[in-house]
Amino acid sequence: MSWSLDLVPLPPCALLGGPPLSGLLWTVLLLFLWYCYRVGSDPPSHSGMLKSSSSRSSFSRSSSRSPVDPGHSVPKASAAITMESVEEEEGTESYLTPVLSHAPFPTDAAAGSRKLYRALQEYAKRYSWAGMGRIHKGLRNQARNNDRPSIQKPHLFYLPDVPSIPFFPRDAHRHDIEVLEASYPKILAEFQAVYQRGIDTKLGWSYQGPKGQTVFPLYTAGVCVASNCRACPCTYRTLLSLRTFISSNSLGSAGFWLLGPGATLGGAYGPTNTRLRCHLGLQTPAQCELVVGGEPQCWSEGHCLLVDDSFLHTISHNGGAEDGPRVIFSVDLWHPNVAAAERQALDYIFAPEQ
């Protein structure tokens, strides 16, 4: 005998274990279940959207501070992030912005600034753009120097973000100052020997500025004056022993500076804020005064002053003929805040032959 089992499908109401439902109630139940499903899968609320948007904005800010490989293009989907990062960089005026963004050099820049910028590009091709952010920014903004406060206005090159004060403490260049002051007797003796031969252009002297100021240069605009260095061998060797002497570019000089009685140098600015002038006093009458950035100072024989001559400065000798000239040995040293990579680049950009 064979048995067969016929399965008869049960109505939905039976599956739910309740009394039979009419077709309308069953439809309402299905619509309710569909609604619950859709609510659970909908996008987050407005507060969640704001949080997500804030996260994207935070990501954009963090990514704007990271260098971007110039060899890879940015996909179109990130256009909003790119614009946002550029706006923030412009607002914060980061000195790395010009290098990272590859912003074009101003077309209205002066010919001299364009020449310096081409030299920077050539340097970067040979070496690297690393560490060139401040120099790049300084060259781009060179035309704005006329808008700087009148108290500090270097006429050739201004390096941004460099701490500046008219007179620097000895600790800024303690080693070189101690070397110069220890060599004071030898330097003074060699100056006196040169001075006694007479002041004449044929003997290596030159006239600078107003009447009464003469210079016996050992280095001028980064070039060694060989005949004058041979006349002062001890002084020349002292220069070579300095750690921060600017001897390889046109921003650096060294020599004996004389200012006669009654002479005054009117308000002037040095060419750059990347250097400090170290004045070693050799003969300093009491009536002599140096005013830098509105701050007066007097020289002292055998001691050094560190001066940022990119500030407005005046020099005066109010003594009489019996006092003789004021004599200092002036040496240009790197500003302590200029990094080694920047010094190397400036040596290239301001090379004497350019």
Automatic annotation (TrEMBL):
Keywords from the UniProt entry: Dioxygenase, Membrane, Oxidoreductase, Signal-anchor, Transmembrane, Transmembrane helix
Pfam families: Asp_Arg_Hydrox (PF05118)
Domain Aspartyl/asparaginy/proline hydroxylase: 181-336
Gene Ontology molecular functions: dioxygenase activity
Membrane topology type: Single-pass type II membrane protein
Record-annotated membrane-spanning stretches: 20-37
Subcellular location: Membrane
InterPro entries per the UniProt record, alphabetical: Asp/Arg/Pro-Hydrxlase (IPR007803), Asp/Asn_beta-hydroxylase (IPR051821), IPNS-like_sf (IPR027443)
PANTHER family assigned to the protein according to its UniProt record, in alphabetical order: ASPARTATE BETA-HYDROXYLASE DOMAIN-CONTAINING 1 (PTHR46332:SF4), ASPARTATE BETA-HYDROXYLASE DOMAIN-CONTAINING PROTEIN 2 (PTHR46332)
Name recorded for this polypeptide: Aspartate beta-hydroxylase domain-containing protein 2
